[in-house]
Amino acid sequence: MSPTATASASAIIAETSIGYHHLKIHGYSSLKGLPVGHRLSSCPFTVGGPSLENRLLPQRRPRGERGATSPSTSSSTTTSPRMSRRSSELVSSPTRSAHSSSSTTTRPSHRSPQHLRTASPARGALGYPKFVQLSALENSKILKNDSFTIRCDVVVIDRVRIEGKGSDEKKEAPKFVKVPPSDLNRHLGGLLLAERGADVVFQAGGETFAAHRCVLAARSPVFSAELFGSMKEGNTAHGSVVRVHDMEAQVFKALLCFLYTDSLPEMGKEEEDVMCQHLLVTADKYGMERMKLVCEDRLCKYIHVNTVANILALAQLHSCAGLKSACVHFLTSPGNLRAAMDSDGFHHLTTTCPSLLKELITMSAPN
Q: Residues 14-51: pLDDT tens digits?
């Protein structure tokens, strides 16, 4: 019996971005007076991400040749190296004047010497070892009304992927069970609402809230110390009410929601900015770092000339580096800074954070 043949197949697929750029030269006769080796560059353009530019040497003298000109392409990108192929040609009447994702320009019969080269951007400019003789250019139909155009075609390899399976690879086993995402937060949220098994009661803003000591202690180091540790007081005993001072009922309710579900409750846009400021202070008080970052992120959306001073003071007092950076970035605009300095919140900032005031005055001073 003959052995059974095994088959396998794979493919190497290059995902590319294709484009071109037209560089038109006006006043060719004047450019001939430039020094030998002087380089001219086009405006930057992009194909598939890297920033490129066309460069032209109007006067160059390679070995054994008289005056000549040569186009080249240079990459100025600082991203990870990607392979590219670039070529240039002289054209008489381009149909488009900017780079495009497709090549539809009619190619003339007269071309400059072609030489395609492939390299990563780190290798720098890609040019031609041979040059266009100035006399040949001047006698060609390419030069019209003392001008001509250089077209640069660019192909950038964005990614190379391999598809297929070898004969020795095992087939992926079929899945018969689909595991749903965790719904622990939903169950704990339900436990909070039902108050089943609650063993501690808090009072805040004239309202009472039943909760579970173990859940609070597991989520907050401050609650852990208050309910079980060295900060435990007589009023935290079973059956007693723990009074939370200087906190509104709505804020404490939102704190409990985050403690049990790891997310803030739904809020209306008209109240979210003020509510998040209160919750940020609360999160800092109870050592809830993730809740604090969530509040910082939401407050970034509410930074404007009338709020930036208060939010900046809040960020400074509670060590919110990200929120402070967002405020400072907003105030780097001279117009925003002048408008903010006229707001009521700015006067509050001068008394609460004098060091920040010095920074802002330095920013507003003319160079």
A: 888 888 888 888 888 887 777 877 777 788 878 776 67
CA distance 314 to 49: 40
What pairing do the DSSP bridges indicate for beta strands 147-165 and 84-91? antiparallel
- Bigger pLDDT: 143 vs 250: 250
From CA 111, how far away is CA 350, in angstroms rounded?
Answer: 69
The span from the CA of 324 to the CA of 353, in Å, is 12
Q: What is the residue-wise DSSP string for 174-237?
A: PP---PPPP-HHHHHHHHHHHTTT--EEEEETTEEEEE-HHHHHHH-HHHHHHHTSTT--GGGS
Q: How far is CA 279 from the centre of its chain?
A: 27
Do 318 and 296 form a contact (C-beta atoms < 8 A)?
no
Residue type, 64: G
> What's the Cα-to-Cα distance from 156 to each of 100, 116, 153, 311, 361, rounded to whole Å?
13, 13, 10, 45, 47
Helices and strands, number each (H, E), in the chain: 13, 12
Q: Model confidence over 231-269: pLDDT tens digits? A: 666 555 556 799 999 999 999 999 999 999 999 999 988
Main-chain dihedrals φ then ψ at residue 9, nearest 5 degrees: -155, 150
pTM above 0.85, yes or no: no
